[in-house]
Amino acid sequence: MPGHLVVLSGGLDSTVCMALATADSGRPPLALTFDYGQRHRTELDRAAGVAGHYRSEHLVVELDTTAWGGSALTDPSIDVPLGGTEGGIPVTYVPARNSIFLAVSLGVAEARGLDAVWIGVNAIDYSGYPDCRPQFIEAFRGVAATGQKRGVEGNPIAIRTPLIESTKSEIVLLGLAHGAPLQLTWSCYQGGDRPCGACDACVLRARGFAEAGVDDPAMP
Amino acid sequence: MPGHLVVLSGGLDSTVCMALATADSGRPPLALTFDYGQRHRTELDRAAGVAGHYRSEHLVVELDTTAWGGSALTDPSIDVPLGGTEGGIPVTYVPARNSIFLAVSLGVAEARGLDAVWIGVNAIDYSGYPDCRPQFIEAFRGVAATGQKRGVEGNPIAIRTPLIESTKSEIVLLGLAHGAPLQLTWSCYQGGDRPCGACDACVLRARGFAEAGVDDPAMP
């Protein structure tokens, strides 16, 4: 049975990926979470909860991106916008975040003999980050094929993005259908005790549950 | 004047890249060094020395890859081979190392408004690592073009590999011609006080200096 790795932020999309990867392989995937200095540190605890739910090994990789910043999510001097989803690429974009996540994930997967990396990127109901789009994922598959021992030996580690073309309401319904513990997840970009309800991530999440016609089990 | 970033290990090739990037832009590049748990930790001090020589800002990024291992360079239970250069991809290969280095470098460069990332990969006199070859670099250029704000806005960060098709002796001579402080560099994969003289990196380095007809200024 092939082993899988899931990039787990503790948010909605990555938690649904945990459910899908578990269903696909019939055993707990390795959950990989990045502590990159994000202001919404609550998601780290949520990721641990989701990994525990699936009885997965949970590897937390620390990489202090606040040393260079460049994002509202990692630089306290840049505010998270609260006016709903913006046009263009917002200030919450973290430079090269998913490149870093995928590169580390491919390294871990190769070292551990795993066959696939799952990442819950979505290019439909999203904040507009370029590193969530199909063109980027395809480019990274080229990296896996050319830059790794596994790749040049003809057996590249797969990068699986089952949610990339889904709407947020489809992701909600898919998660519920697979018994994903959505009540454990956290999406808000802010660092408070409760979701702010006003940042991009909160707005997209609320709309997704509303369009799916179900209550958000993580809302108090 | 565009600013540059150089991935600086403290070895011969990356130090020559520091010289070339400085000559190209007329000012000190940002030097980026990775403390990834390598057994040859001496190179971290050497990198600091080289960065100091160029009066560069020196950013050291910590990423503990020993948590997953998979390489003789990061796992104390795997010995570094001392029988000269092997065939195939050796056990000193670190899974996805240059993918991780380039992903972080692209993030730092974007956050800091720099225009190019220089990396001293070489696919001629090398250990056979796939992430030193032109195909891999080309794939990563695709990542920079598709996965970053700078890229999708039509101004991708360049990845420069001036040494990729050079022999080691050509690299030595290029470094000397540009006044690179080769006496400060460290290549050995082992963790001792002096180069072991027997690992891949030592053998390739010695052969390069011999073919260039010059003494290695870093040898006692």
H and E string of chain A: EHEHEHEHHEHH
Q: How many β-strand stretches of chain A?
A: 5
Structural class computed from helices and strand pairing of chain A: alpha/beta
Number of helices of chain A: 7
General description of the model:
- The structure is a homodimer of 220-residue chains.
- The first copy, chain A, is α/β, with parallel strands linked by helices and 220 residues long.
- The first copy, chain A, has one domain: Rossmann fold.
- Chain A is built from seven helices and five strands, in the order βαβαβαβααβαα.
- The first copy, chain A, has a five-stranded parallel sheet with strand order 3-2-1-4-5, with helices on both faces.
- In chain A, α1 packs across α6 and α6 crosses α7.
- The mean pLDDT of chain A is 94.
- At the A-B interface, β3, α3, α4 and α5 of A face β3, α3, α4 and α5 of B.
